[in-house]
Queue: 3 jobs
Job 1
Amino acid sequence: MSDRLAPPAASFIREHEVDLGDRRLRAGIDRPTEIEGWWLAVLWVADDEGIVACRTVAPASGPPPDPPHVRLGPLLSGGLSGFVLEEGGRQQLRLRLPVPPVDEAHPWSAPLVVQLAVRWEPARAASLTPSKLADVALAAFRRAVEAVHRP
């Protein structure tokens, strides 16, 4: 029996395969909600035993000294470039790890589950179905996780 967290729900859309070279994982997303113009979703990476730790996707040389969201955030933001509303020169995107690490001294021990908040660029959002928006976000998340893993 695994002591890892189970995904919070069945993925809202078909899971994406996360390619880490020698290992294949699955990325999923819950059903997004919208609150005060912000699109909110929970995304995760799991295998058959549950949600993997962030250190699972760290480079082979080991986890970087900064927390996982510091690496994932810019990569995810870049992957969503053109889809995210900009105000005052800043992308309207927020990312956080809602589950604390198992060991506070090792931030990469946290489960690889993130909360994403996005204010979509209105023309893009109007032209996509809710499922397609979720797929855009999940694909960008998958690519970000794969990029973190590369040396």
Job 2
Amino acid sequence: MQIGLQIPDFTWPGGPGLLGRDLATVGRIADEAGFDFIAVMDHFFQIGSVGPADHEMLEAYTTLGYLAGCTSRARLLTLVTGVVYRHPGILAKIVTTLDVLSGGRAWLGIGAAWNEEESRGLGIPFPPVAERFEQLEETLQICLQMWRGDETPYTGQHYQLERPLNSPQALSQPHPPIMIGGGGERKTLRFVARYAQACNLFPGPELAHKLDVLREHCDREQRVYDEIYKTCYFVFDVGERGEKAGEMVDRLGTLAEMGFQAAIGQVAGVHTLTPLEIIGAEVIPAVADL
């Protein structure tokens, strides 16, 4: 079982003036502690489950590029890129750039987007959900084509690219892994089976059922189910002195028994650094062989 840090909140005690320094320290400590992933949300406004909309929120790929320079081993990604926020040809270039500058550590986490408030607030077109899924499928096709080095024109319903040139190419081979976030049974998990190397699901009583649905889609797509890297969102709260670490290891063990290979999520009190160090010392080694 691998462990990943997601940073969803940038409203830290030092304020914006110290945020660059503090974020660099969090990234470095997480990297050295053995976290396999460092992720951020792809939002422009803070989301309601974390805090008020006007709390500090950093643009995702600028932040990941900064973290690439502060770390050396953790893989870098969003949970998850909103498909409506960037033209797919530009998104392929962005992830490729992150991959090249990080030494091959970029993943593309992506989904159909949901936050209409920030889209409307910033003037980003936000079509109905069915159209967003059409855009998601075309975006996946375009990214894969560009990472293959195929410069032939792409003509889709929503996007037309005359010459999808991608130079330099990504260092990751055959391309940066694609992780599709969400548990939609008709489209999202079908896209995982058809296009992705990984999925990200949210915890809940239907987790086992979602994996069964994914397996069914893999069978229909003639995809080997075990090829899909399965991750689950997880809230890491080890307590002030690490008193909850054992309980966390047990919960991660349950996920591993279900077939999940990684847990990625926020760490309570991350800006204090102590929880990262506790997880690195007590949790990551305990779940490494699960």
Job 3
Amino acid sequence: MIRLHDLRHTHATLLLADREPVKTVSERLGHASVAITLDVYGHVMPGDQRRAADRFAALIGESR
């Protein structure tokens, strides 16, 4: 049986995994701060550090 809370969790997880801004998802969930959202759902964004490093390298004109 799927609970309403399970649907809420799925909703947030899918949005974050698809790169929806954390602030937007946090507001949709009604969290008091983005810190709460990141504490609960941060695991669905594991590639963000690599992606940020790659983007920074591209911005300064370096290649991997």
